[in-house]
Structures are given as structure tokens and as C-alpha cells.
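Q: I'm writing up a methods section and want to include an example of the input and output format. Could you take the sequence below and give the corresponding predicted C-alpha cells, formatted cleanly so I can copy it straight into the document?
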Amino acid sequence: MATTSVTDAETEEAGGADADTDADAGADADASGDTSGAGVRTGSGAVSDLTPTETAQELLVAYRTDIDPDPYLATLAEFDESELRPLQRDRERALAFWLNCYNAGTQRLLAERPGLYESPLRMLRFFGARCLTVAGTGVSLDDIEQGILRGRSKYGLGYLPRLLPDTFEVLYRLDDLDPRIHFALNCGAASCPAIRAYEPGAVDDQLDLATRAYLDGTVEYAPESGTVRVPRVFLWYRGDFGGPRGIRRLLREYEVIPADATPRVRYQSWDWSRAGAKFVEG
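A: Here is the clean output for your methods example:
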């Protein structure tokens, strides 16, 4: 397995995590026409009876438990815009849906097209490849994260707008960027946070839990030198957090550094070793 490791930096870099592209590099064939699995039963009933949010959640569970994902993929593809309309009005529902879609999409690409992740052009080919079809529209990991959840370019450290969004992205983009998404999205790298299935009624509490767990497991505070070393996602998306001051404010909020601490922020390297199926235990 090819492994890429980003050099540790004690100063901030002017580059994004990956190439900002909507390219569909060798789009995979989504199961959108096979309805033979529509009668598969889950705790919520037949797959065809599930709401979009329930379908995305069950799809993610399917990848965790080795259940056949095809019925859920087909159902997700066959929804129409009227069925997705609640996502435009309900922030919690939209957050849960798109977080689960992203993480399920990652698992699908890693399972079906692992070569994209191992490619030297990973940032273009893996993140730009179609991972799911939602209501007849193919979406990539970049479409979900950069377009719908963030609404910003991955270039410019999180300060630049995303250019030329398509109609689907404009329809479903969240109004407000929640920086905690960076502790919930898993792209398959060893340094990514663990995956959990998000629920609309609990998504805020779940995001708090995910943020605290990730920060507790990664952040290195050194009061004697007045520095704090944080995961590189804080650099790539610095603007999402409100810059260095916002980063320190978040670290204080989650009690990773003392309430009166103002350490210099340094950025850790990112381990791109492939680590699929990194689910929260329990």
C-alpha cells in the first residue's frame, strides 16, 4: 500500500488539503435502476419506505456491518427533489444527512475503487470522483464537503468562496458553516476522525462528542514552551475556525488548553495511510 506523509510544519502553509475540483474522474456506476432490494427489511421498515435521512444513515450502517448496500444506494439515487426538500429547511436533518452521505461515500470508494486513493493524483481522482448518486445527481466527496457543508473553496486556507457552484449545490448548501464537521468527516486517512452514524435529533450533541474525542486524542499542549500542536486540518481550513484566535477559542471551549492560555499554534503532519472502516466502537 502506497503511503504519503505530509512533512510536519511549524509555520503555516498557503495550500489546501486537496485540489478544488468537481471533476468526475472515471465515475463509477451507481446502482440506480435495480429495485430488487426494495423489500429488504431494516429496523425502520422496507428500504423503499425510508426517508432520505434514514436511507443515508442505514447506508453507512450497511458499510460498517457488511450488509448489501445496493438497495440503499438505489433508493438514495431515486429520491426526487420534493423528498429532499426538508433538507433545505432543517439544519439538523441536513447535517446528519450529508455527514452520513460523505462517510458512506468514502467507504464505497475505498471498497470499490481503492486505486483512486492510492493514486499520486488522489486529491483530484479520489475526492473528485462520484461517490454517490442523490436524487439523480452524482456527487463527489468534494461536492459534499466543500460545496454543500462548507460553501468555500479548499484553496486559500478556508477564506475563499467556492466558485461556480452548480444548481444542486446551491439548492442544498447549508446556510452556516459549522467547523465541527471537520471532526466528523472521514476521507479514509489514518489521521481522520472516527466515523459515527449521525441522527437529526442528536446531531449537535454527536458533533460535540466527536469534536471532544478528536481533540483529546490529537492535540498536544506544551505550556512550558507556550505552544499547542493541532491536527493539520486546522491549517487547511483555518478560516473555518476563525483563524488562530478562533482555533484557541475552540481549544478552550473543549478544555484542551486552559481558559487563560494563549499558546502559539503549530500544525502536525497528516498521516495519509489508508485506514478504512474506522468506526466508533459501541
